[in-house]
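Methods — Computational structure assignment.
A single polypeptide chain was analysed. Its primary sequence is given first, followed by the predicted tertiary structure written as structure tokens.
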Amino acid sequence: MASYANISADQGADFQISIDIEDANGDPLNLSDFELYGQVRRTYKSENSVDFDIGVAANAALGSISIKLSAATTATMKSGRYVYDVYAVNTGAPQTIKVIEGILEIVPSVTKEFG
């Protein structure tokens, strides 16, 4: 079962969080054979989506990932609540794990033009 976390990102700013993924025993999940995918949508049924840029730590055996959205991406998103999730798919075995899910809130920006 996936972890659940509500997160927020500032509209027009870079967004990044780090997540440590554990197996059922609480040990770091070795991500060496996994590909990671994640999306943000306004609702679960929305056709349009935004893909997360997901990176794995230098040592994949530590189970640490980072989830990112660029400032250009968050600038195009309307403020408000979205839903998101991230999946890890084992490329060597038929195994798909939902890592995390929740609500992403895009916090509106007052400043509209930068330097």
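Note: The chain has one domain: 3-107.
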